[in-house]
Design brief:
This protein has three helices and six strands; from the N terminus they run H-H-E-H-E-E-E-E-E. By secondary structure, it is an alpha+beta fold. It has a single domain, classed as Nuclear Transport Factor 2, Chain: A. Strands 1, 2, 3, 4, 5 and 6 form a six-stranded mixed beta sheet that branches. The longest helix is centred in the first third of the chain and has 19 residues.
Amino acid sequence: MNTNDCTDNMKELNRRTFKAEEKESVGADSWDAFLERVLADEFAIRRSDPKVANQDRAQMIRWINEKPVIPRKLIEDELRAWCTDTLGVVTCPIEQVRDGVLHRYQNVKVFRREPPGDWQCVCWQVTEAPVSEAPASQDR
């Protein structure tokens, strides 16, 4: 796989994980079936709230199922991806309005693959970032 194809695959997989997190179907898969397949057995997510413990795959899916969907905006022009044949990393900010207040979160996802298999996310880190770091946006 060439580098451009690999990074394009990482970027698309990143978009799909956010789509699933908003409880939207991904291709033929329901959101939860997609996450069951894409999140590795050893998956862990570190959410931005320090009071929330790390979540494994089942805990993340349960969390999403129990929480209301809060729409988010992926900041596409700041999305970055790097990968080799077996390791991929994606970093990107999103914006969300919660209780009338704009928040910005930096996401970092680490994926692994055992060729010729599919990519699986092993780690997802979310950090709240100051909104003042965000470039001026007309369409918030």
